[in-house]
C-alpha cells in the first residue's frame, strides 16, 4: 500500500512537494494541491481511498483524475514542470496562447526524447502525445485566466507596431496575426480600430515605403519605365495594400513630384 510520507509546502515558490512510501517525489502547484480530490496528509493511503467528488469540479485539471491517485500526482507534477517553463517563456516576450502551447509541446517532446536516450527499455519515461498536449493546454488556460497572456493585447500591440513602424497595410497585418494563430474574431476586432481604417494613414504609409525604397523624390525610380513602376506597385501589394489603393498612391505621388515649384 502506497502512503504519503512527507508533504512540504513552499508558498513563495507556489508549489508543494509530496513524497510517497515508494520513494517517488512529486512537485505540484499549490492551487492543484489545495484542490486535490483525495486526502493527501502524512500516512494517508493512496489506494482504495474515498474520493471527494465535490472537488472534482473545482478546477479544470481535476477532470483528468481517473481514480488512480499516484498516477494523478505524476500528471500534476508534469504540469508543474511545464508551468515553470511557461513562466520563463512568457517573461522573455509577449506570446499568443496557441503559439505558447505549441512551443511548450515541442520543447517537452524533445526533453523526454533526450531523457530516454540513455535509459534502458524498462526504465523509459513514457508520455502520450495527447496527454502532453492536454498538459500544455491546461497551463496556457491558466496563464490566460491570470492575465499572463492575452491574445487581444498581443494582437493590438503587434498590429500597431506593424502599421506605425513597418508601414504594413491591413492585409499584411492580418496575414501576420493569422500566422501567429490569433483568432479571426480578434483580428477583425483589432482592424476595426480607427488607426487601421484611416485612409490618410494608409496613403502616408505607402508614400513612406516608396521614399524608403526609391528616395525622397523617387530619384532611384525610372518613372518612364513601366517595369520599374510595376516593381514599385508590387512592393506596395506585398506590404499589404489593396490593388487600387497602391495604384493610386504611386500615380498621385509621381504627379506631385512632377509639378514645377
- Which structural class do the helices and strands define? mainly alpha
In terms of quaternary structure, the protein is single chain
Main sheet strand line-up: 1-2-3
Overall mean confidence score, pLDDT: 89
Q: Counting H and I runs of at least 4 residues, what is the number of helices?
A: 12
Low-confidence stretches: none
Topology of this protein?
Elements: E1 4-10, E2 15-20, E3 25-29, H1 30-34, H2 53-56, H3 69-92, H4 97-116, H5 129-146, H6 151-164, H7 170-179, H8 184-191, H9 194-197, H10 199-214, H11 226-238, H12 243-258
Antiparallel strand pairs: 1-2, 2-3
Write up this protein.
α4 (97-116) crosses α5 (129-146) and α7 packs antiparallel against α8. The chain has three domains: 4-146, no CATH class; 151-192; 198-261. It has twelve helices and three strands; from the N terminus they run βββαααααααααααα. It has 261 residues and is mainly α. The protein has helices at residues 30-34, 53-56, 69-92, 97-116, 129-146, 151-164, 170-179, 184-191, 194-197, 199-214, 226-238, 243-258, and strands spanning 4-10, 15-20, 25-29.
Overview features:
261 residues; 3 strands; single chain; 3 domains; 12 helices
Brief description of this entry?
With 261 residues, the protein is mainly α.
